[in-house]
């Protein structure tokens, strides 16, 4: 095959262009720290990295969901601890109410104190989180779940379904108990009534039973009134004990969920690290290899320039 001066010129120019392209590409890798900067650099690795990136993004979403769930459950457990304290205080008061030497004035004083405990419980039952959502309202977070009527009775008007949240790929968790489950339910093994009657599950009704008894005059009353008073205080005491057991059961469940969220966070962190390592193995630059290549390509480019310069002064007619 015959070679013309223009062909030799073009081949040298192509060699320079190719050397420069390789050198520039390696320089970009060193600048970005990435071996794959565009899909064409390594289509298979780029495709796999995209899939891993999507998995990592999903993992981050679950992490955010767990943070939200942890905040909700932490707020709930704080309120439940306060509810426990109030119930225990009310129990202590009912023990005092059983003292047969109390005067009507003493019992009225206890009634006033017990009413304040009821008010505290109602306020706690209508607690809100930092965003103004009611903790114990289920999905009806915009309105107070417990409403007090003019006669003092308290009813639940919140949602019937507890709030749930997807906290991992295969784990959905209840992140907010309904008020009815906390303040108007009985847990397994509750204390039954001696006469076989229904046990009171509504803590507010329980307190109303005690309040009615404490505000009923006992001095100079006949035996029927005294017996009814003793029975009412006894029923209220059993009701508070059952309500406390239920609140403690809910609190224990919340604690278990918080522990599970911690474990899921640890797994999520490990998963994120593994994905990051896999992405790095696919697209990150091998610094030692890239630096070596960069130096070699720079030498090759300089040699190509020198050759091209020398060829410029030559032709097929040169002797």
UniProtKB/TrEMBL annotation:
Pfam families: Flagellin_N (PF00669). GO terms for biological process: bacterial-type flagellum-dependent cell motility. InterPro entries: Flagell_FlgL, Flagellin, Flagellin_N. It comes from the Bacteria. Keywords: Bacterial flagellum, Cell projection, Cilium, Flagellum, Secreted. It is found in: Bacterial flagellum; Secreted. GO terms for molecular function: structural molecule activity. Residues 4-141 form the Flagellin N-terminal domain. Its main location: other. One of its GO terms (cellular component) is bacterial-type flagellum hook. Belongs to the bacterial flagellin family. NCBIfam families: flagell_flgL (TIGR02550). This is Flagellar biosynthesis hook-filament junction protein. It comes from Candidatus Sodalis pierantonii str. SOPE. The gene is flgL2.
